[in-house]
Amino acid sequence: MILNEVNITGDCLVSINSTCLKIYSSMATYVSLYAFAAAIVIFTVCGNLLVIISVYHFKQLHTPTNVLILSLAISDCLVGLFVMPVHSMILIESCSLFGSNFCALYNMINFQLTFVSVYNISFIAVDRYFALSNPFVYSKKVSLFISFIIVIHVWIVSLFYNCALLYFNGNFKSKCPDKCVPYVNEVWSTVDLMVVFMFPCATIIILYLKVFFIARRHAVLIRAAQKDRKRLDVQNSGDSMRLERKAARVLGILVSVFLMCLIPYYICMMLMDALAQSYDRVVNTMLTLFFLNSTVNPIIYALFYPWFQKSMKLIFTFKICRTDSSLINVLSTNRPP
Fold it and tell me: Residues 15-35: pLDDT tens digits?
């Protein structure tokens, strides 16, 4: 949830279109800012579309963990399509160029996608912890259907929660159409801080600390198994543990980057009084950092997931258009990372 709690009192000053442009040193600077913003938006959308196409098309990638990654990629792609362009205009221009209805829709989409992203990451942490702590139970109990149910519930619960939050704070009737900023009272702000920041972040951090210790214990078991090569079952178990540790490490990077992008924003929110006059500038900077997480995620996949690298090659060479291309082996092992 992206919250900018503003106490809107008095009359809103409506800016004239001719005064909406900030004063830049040159028109080239102004155009360059928009060009840079457009490049970031295009990269974000295209990068996440590659992830969506890869996971959806190749049947080998239809795993419970990848369903959560698919949901995260969809929310990141929508951030690139609907949130980042508007946020870029708000940063570049000196006033909002949008009407009250558009701002209400923008805030709803913004809140919805933030909630979904946070809880997708949370369930990825739960998934990895369960897979490492109870691998045999995980393989029997966790299915594609269960992951789909979890993802659908996250999107639905997010929709109802954010509709209630915005409605009961009067954001569907804009108090200040010139300021595309939602108003949230103190009670709802506290609730939202707990629901969308404190609880999921605490869950993520605690579970990944446990994953770290489990991974260390597995490393000891693997080294012990390697001393007795004749015991094939022990060796296979060690190989399985190694794959799970690798998956947990890569997803740990994904989660760590997400937390580094999210936590600074909420720290600024809690230090609103201390920041005083520089509050808007600092919060907008931290908000930009959070949105850029949607741009960074596909880069993480490209750097650390061999299956994503191979999928991109198949997509760019149009081999994905061939008959039965969904059955192509995109994994380096028989087990998904």
Answer: 334 445 555 667 888 888 899
Distances (CA, A) of 326 to 162, 305, 323: 37, 18, 8
Residue 3 lies in a domain: no
pLDDT at 331: 81
Is 336 a member of any domain?
no
**Spatial contact of 294 and 84, defined as CB atoms under 8 Å apart:** yes
DSSP letters for 10-78? SPPPPPPGGG-B---S-HHHHHHHHHHHHHHHHHHHHHHHHHHHHHHH-GGG--HHHHHHHHHHHHHHH
The Cβ of residue 221 has, within 10 Å, a number of other Cβ atoms equal to 13
The number of folded domains in the chain is 1
Q: Does residue 23 belong to any structural domain of this protein?
A: no
Lowest mean pLDDT among 12-26, 167-181, 322-336: 12-26
Which CATH number do you get for residue 186? 1.20.1070.10
**Among positive and negative, which fits the CA dihedral 111, 114, 117, 122?**
negative
- Give the residue numbers spanning the domain of 63: 29-327
Provide the residue count of the chain.
337
Residues 178-200 have pLDDT tens digits of 557 777 788 888 898 899 989 99
Q: What is the pTM of this model?
A: 0.83
